[in-house]
Specification:
The chain is α/β, with parallel strands linked by helices and 245 residues long. It is built from 7 helices and 13 strands.
Length: 245
Amino acid sequence: MPLRSRNAYEVLGVAPTADLATIKKAYRRAARRHHPDLSSDADAHERMKAVVAAWATLRDPGSRASLDRELAEAAARAERSRARRSRRDQASRTESDRARRGARRPTSSAAGRASGGSDWIEDMLAGIRLSASGGASVASSVIMGSGARARSRSYSGPVHRGDLRVGRGEDRAGSGIVAGNVFVAADGSFHFRGRVDGKVVVEGGVVRIEGLIRGGVEVHGGELLVSGWVEGGISNSGGRIHVEG
């Protein structure tokens, strides 16, 4: 470790709990080892300066107490940083688990009937799949086999006027009609059945739309699963898209 990054305890090779007599013995040993008149090392002079400075710090109760506080604060900062990394790692694992659960959701007609789903959910089994990742872009509308039924069916239910936004870490679900755009922030989760009149913009997390999207989709991160029909094009700049007709 470079001299400048070592604290006084490390320079003398003693523990922070060492008593003054132990520190003094360590200082004398280090002084004999690094004294420029006794050592042939090129950096002996710098090492001796560090040894003298360390002894001056640790022999004085006030200076030593100040050093102990600095070391305790540094340890606390390191622990907080470790805890933040641990939370980020946990959030990343949670997002991956959500993506895997979304990919494993049943899409067969039997599953649709068992959950009371309407006939357009049964179209998931027929159609073909579009899977894109990392910079893929599909212009114009996307026509997916029997997903045409999702386009032609009449949608009803609650109407959300204007844009719908799902914030970071939010987990939302709904059905009906969104008379605007849908924006899903990073780490968000959104499951919707019905019609979106605007576009769907996904910044991260896992989004599942079952029905019709009229304004196209933009995926910048995370994963978008669409069961039905997409008009207006698909743009992907960093996530994953699955479209099932």
